[in-house]
Write a structure and sequence with these properties.
Layout (H helix, E strand, L loop, with lengths): L1 H8 L6 H22 L9 H19 L6 H23 L1 H7 L4 E5 L2 E2 L1 H6 L4 H10 L8 E6 L5 E5 L22 E5 L2 E2 L1 H4 L5 H10 L8 E6 L5 E5 L4
Antiparallel strand pairs: 1-2, 1-3, 3-4, 5-6, 5-7, 7-8
Helix pairs in contact: 1-2, 2-3, 2-4, 3-4, 4-5
Length: 239
């Protein structure tokens, strides 16, 4: 019974398994806190990854600054957290029902052009925050919006009404060629030979650079070439 109390209150004589149990307590506690504060507070961060980073830092952080603490316990706790993180990620991938417990579902906050007030309250989003998200999606005119969805990563996706979507080549009777993947040929003044060899030889590269006003590879900060053969070059500015 005393050992159980020591796990919660802490003790200089904490047994090996005590660090593992304490790490598990911290992980579950932070997981509950993340679920309570909601996905708006976790924008661009996967909740499991956030918890993993926080708990691992807490478990092993003190061992860096404290020279008299044995590493066995904290390392065991960190291993436990890493295993639990992997287990939850694997379970959410394989078990759809369990995934709904771990990951938040998307919330529709605008439907058929109408703002759903109850969903704004449920997601702790204010009108000002919603309008900001819409502006960032180039959708400041509410009359143009069909749907807006709060995604699990905290970002808002916008689906505009059909008349307000940008016209594509197919809409105007064209059959445009796919641009394909932009291959990085030069990055920060350094040639990526493996990528270049998929598209051109060294002589073609040098001639192309001259045609674009560059005498040396070192003068280019970034160069990409897509599958259509279109070049993009950005100069490397000397500081």
């Amino acid at each position: 019974m005393q050992n159980i109390t020591d796990i919660w209150t802490g003790s200089e004589q904490l047994p090996f398994y005590g660090f593992i149990v304490r790490a598990l307590f911290v992980y579950l506690y932070i997981f509950l806190m993340v679920k309570v504060i909601g996905q708006r507070s976790m924008a661009n961060i996967d909740p499991l990854d956030f918890i993993f980073g926080v708990v691992i830092g807490d478990v092993v952080g003190e061992t860096v600054s404290s020279g008299d603490e044995e590493l066995t316990g904290p390392f065991a706790g960190a291993a436990m957290i890493a295993f639990l993180h992997w287990l939850l990620s694997f379970a959410s991938l394989k078990l759809p029902r369990f995934r709904r417990v771990i990951e938040d579902e998307p919330f529709i906050i605008i439907e058929n052009g109408q703002i759903l007030n109850d969903m704004l309250k449920k997601t702790n989003m204010t009108i000002e925050q919603l309008l900001m998200e819409l502006r960032q999606n180039d959708a400041s005119n509410l009359n143009e919006i069909d749907y807006a969805i709060l995604e699990p990563n905290g970002q808002v996706s916008v689906i505009k009404k059909s008349p307000f979507n940008a016209a594509t080549g197919y809409d105007i009777g064209l059959n445009p060629q796919n641009e394909g993947y932009p291959h990085v040929i030069i990055a920060d003044g350094k040639l990526i030979s493996a990528n270049m060899e998929k598209i051109m030889n060294r002589k073609q590269l040098e001639n192309g650079l001259i045609d674009h006003g560059y005498n040396r590879i070192e003068d280019v900060f970034l160069m990409t070439v897509n599958d259509k053969g279109e070049w993009y070059l950005s100069p490397r500015l000397r500081v």
